Amino acid sequence: MGRFDKYNVELKGLKTETLNLEFDLNNNFFADIDGEEFQRGTVNAKVSVRKNREVFDFTFVLNGTVIVPCDRCLDDLEIDIVAENTLKVKLGESYADEGDIVVVPEDEGDINLAWYLYEFIALALPMKKVHAPGKCNREMTGRLKKYNCNDGSDEENFESEAEEKVIDPRWESLKNIQIEEDI
Questions:
Q1: Which of 27, 124, 136, 148 has the greatest number of CB atoms lying within 10 Å of its CB?
Q2: Is this prediction's pTM over 0.85?
Q3: Same domain, 114 and 162
Q4: Integer CA distances (angstroms), 157 to 8, 73, 149, 152, in order
């Protein structure tokens, strides 16, 4: 039995019109999947599969937390995960990804949801993963301030100044070009 066998859903033999599944994803799941974004957390995943003629509609409802490194100080940061995602799957001749529909070989007739669960959790993460102001590791933010070219005196100034980028003068001069429209 493989590490992710419990995430297999048999589509070919689905007897009911709707199938409800529930998975408790923990540190073992995240370590086994060995993804880049995070490797620790606790997330409850409720998955419902609804059979519509030739297409299976999957709905994923995810609730929990994951631990990621802070983008600023690299200390652990706990992020709440609350997400709802959908996936459409149909049976076909071979594996394929047709836009918004995943095709699974009919002779196999099942799909493993482990990677989809991980990906949907990763999609629920914010782009910027940082502690609230004043909560970052003081030693690390002190070092960042030391090597920063700006004179930010406190963490909040440091954050805003780090986000403001100097615009290349060639691009800056393009702002002055005005386009005349024929009326």
A1: 136
A2: no
A3: no
A4: 49, 16, 13, 5
Q: What is the pLDDT of residues 144-181, one digit of tens each?
A: 888 876 554 444 554 554 445 567 777 777 777 767 66
Q: Which domain holds residue 143?
A: 138-174
- Structure letter (DSSP) for residue 10: E
> CA dist 143 to 5, 82, 138, 148, Å?
46, 34, 9, 9
Kindly tell me the burial class for residue 21, based on how many C-beta atoms sit within 10 Å of its own C-beta (0-12, 13-18, 19 or more): middle
Cβ distance 87 to 52 under 8 Å?
no
Same domain, 47 and 71: yes
**73 and 27 belong to one structural domain:** yes
131 found inside a domain = no
DSSP state, residue 100: T
Residue 130 covered by a domain: no
Q: What is the pLDDT of residues 34-79, one digit of tens each?
A: 888 888 999 999 999 998 888 999 999 999 999 999 998 989 999 9
Pair 28, 114 in one domain:
yes
